[in-house]
Amino acid sequence: MVSFQERVRGVILSIAFGDAIGATIEKLSYQEIKAQYGRVESLKTKWYKADAPQEITLGKKRGNGIVTDDTLMTTALINVYLTEERHLDAYDMGNEFVKEIAYTKRYIPEFDKEAMIIDRLFYPEKYIFMRHVLANCEPREGGLGNMINCGAAMYIAPIGIVNAGNPRGAYDEAILFAMGHQSSYGLEAAGVLAACVAKAFEHGVTIEEIIETAILFAKDGTKMAIKDLTTAAKELRARSAEMDEVIEVFQTIISKYSPMKDDVHRKIEKLGIPSNHYTPSRIFSIEELPMALAFIVLNEGDFYPTIYDGINSGRDTDSIGVMAGAILGAMQGDIVIKKEDIQILEETNRMNLIHLSEKFAELAKRMIKDDIFLNVKRNELF
Fold first, then answer.
1. Interhelix angle for 220-238 vs 184-200, to 10°?
2. Which Gene3D superfamilies does the UniProt entry name for this protein (predicted)?
């Protein structure tokens, strides 16, 4: 039986693995990845921008195990839990979480130096600082007006850990916390992923039960996208479809819910042209979570094939790898990750992820035991 500590290590290390291996090819299309790499299946992969001028790379480095903001924000959230030692909400987003990302220096692997996490973040994540610090917003309205993307879902897995075995609690807490950052289907994805991670901690849980949990809690376009993609994944798996067909089917389906397709770059030519990209909607979904779940179904939860297929599918490759990794790491523990991959991640990123996992696992166990005790006391009322 996989222990709780092994599952927590599995979540955190799998997030870092999916992030790092996907980061080398982020924003490339499936066809571009295929043309330049064939197929990426190693952390020791050269970033496709490695030889580009500094004005293109913005001083960043990737490849060979370097993680991105997905992992940095995940560890920041863990540090908030370690500080507060309780469940969180949007007020913690505007207080302790802001301190973690904007006022505390950390080693940033992409910069190869210490800096504030906010110096590395994309604009929708910098929005946290603008809304809570500069605009002094009502914390529960912090996510309003933000670009709708996967920014909250990519780091939300720790909420699934402290609610292990309680998907409803994970969903509710993720929504209460992430509403300080995101809204609409960006917020919804955060809640659903946290619920999936919490469900994946249950002993003997199946992939089918995790997908049922996702569909149970998901709303609107997120629910429809997960249903459509995971149904297609079952059919494609049943006839052992080749990757080219899988990608064509998956991307055709997700295009109904995410209209940007391969056009993920922000260029001057787009200015002033109306679109629905990244705007609130009840019929849209982020791509990353439904795609991650579909690749889990396609590969029946086999860790490396799922991550490899997910990151090689293109577009937001690192976050697809992160979300699939978080669920499978919770389900199967850290034993599924090769020791050499763990060593690369630990040495390259100087984050001591195993030590952080151990500390967080101890806290999560105490929080869960406290929740169980409170539920017992509530039952005594009847």
1. 50
2. ADP-ribosylation/Crystallin J1
Q: Is the residue at 269 inside a domain? A: no
Q: Is residue 273 part of a domain?
A: no
Any domain includes 304? yes
pTM of the model: 0.97
Residue 292 domain boundaries: 4-262+278-379
Is 267 domain-assigned? no
How many structural domains are present in the chain? 1
Q: Residue 20: name the closest of 43, 51, 48 by CA.
A: 43
pLDDT digit of tens for each residue in the chain (382 aa)? Answer: 999 999 999 999 999 999 999 999 999 999 999 999 999 999 999 999 999 998 888 889 999 999 999 999 999 999 999 999 999 999 999 999 999 999 999 999 999 999 999 999 999 999 999 999 999 999 999 999 999 999 999 999 999 999 999 999 999 999 999 999 999 999 999 999 999 999 999 999 999 999 999 999 999 999 999 999 999 999 999 999 999 999 999 999 999 999 877 777 677 887 888 888 899 999 999 999 999 999 999 999 999 999 999 999 999 999 999 999 999 999 999 999 999 999 999 999 999 999 999 999 999 999 999 999 988 888 888 8
